[in-house]
Each structure stands twice: as structure tokens, then as C-alpha cells.
Design a protein that fits this description.
alpha/beta; about 140 residues; 5-stranded parallel β-sheet; about 15% strand; globular; 7 strands; 6 helices
Length: about 140
């Protein structure tokens, strides 16, 4: 069954745009070929800026280029709304391998996916620990 609307995690977005071979073929088709609305959080854009500044992603991927590539790919930017912050406050803090999962970028994506009823696309191994929150997850 095809998802109605997607929300891409940061690494999936960057892979889909710049390293498409790293994205599962079916997920890539959902992003580009099946006319499924695809979203990226403004929080993801913030994460890209921070990771680039820290030298953790390719320095060629600047915000201006990324915004142009989002437009070209038809990927919509999802702003942070009040209901997202309210959903964020309700998120549990699962303990994974003895550590509480507190990544602020991941948690905002979760809150947005839940409150907007979006399918979150990620390969992050931490998201399945939130399955009790009744959101859709598509794993790469």
C-alpha cells in the first residue's frame, strides 16, 4: 500500500537528492514517481545548516542549493506549527541501549509526522522504539 504523504528524515533527503543509489528503489519511486506529496521539515533544514557548519556533511550542500533542489524535486517545506510543539511535549523518551533518546531533530520530526499524519521515511534505528505512538514509518 502506497503512503498518502511523506516526511523525509535528513539523511533520506540528502541521499535522495545527492546520492540516490543509497535510497531503496521503492522509496525513491514513492518520492519521485508516484505523485505522493513529499515534505521536509524546516527543522531538517536547520539540521543541515548545523551539520554543514560542524563539517559533518559535504560543504557543497549549502542552504541556497538545497532550497533550489527542493523546488526542483517538488518537495514541500513543512513549517513548525503550534500543534507540532504540543505533540512534541507529549512524546515519550524511550531508553535505547541504556541512553534516553533526546535528539531534538528526530523528536520534532516525530511530532510533525504524528500531528500531520505523515509517513516518516528514515533508516534511523531509533524510530521504531516510538511505535506505541501510532505513526507510520517507512524504513530505508
Amino acid at each position: 500500500m502506497k503512503p498518502d504523504r511523506l516526511l523525509l528524515d535528513t539523511h533520506i533527503l540528502l541521499w535522495a537528492l545527492y546520492e540516490p543509489d543509497r535510497v531503496d528503489r521503492h522509496i525513491y519511486e514513492d518520492i519521485y514517481d508516484y505523485n505522493v506529496p513529499v515534505h521536509v521539515s524546516v527543522e531538517t533544514l536547520r539540521e543541515v545548516v548545523i551539520l554543514r557548519h560542524l563539517g559533518k556533511i559535504d560543504s557543497k550542500i549549502d542552504l541556497k542549493r538545497l532550497l533550489i533542489d527542493l523546488d526542483r524535486g517538488g518537495i514541500r517545506i513543512l513549517e513548525i506549527k503550534r500543534k507540532h510543539v504540543e505533540a512534541l511535549e507529549k512524546l515519550s523518551h524511550p531508553v535505547i541501549n541504556g541512553k534516553t533518546h533526546d535528539d531534538p531533530f528526530d523528536r520534532m520530526l516525530m511530532a510533525q509526522a504524528i500531528s500531520e499524519r505523515l509517513t516518516l521515511v528514515s533508516s534511523d534505528m531509533k524510530f521504531p522504539y516510538y511505535r506505541d505512538l501510532n505513526f507510520d514509518l517507512m524504513r530505508n
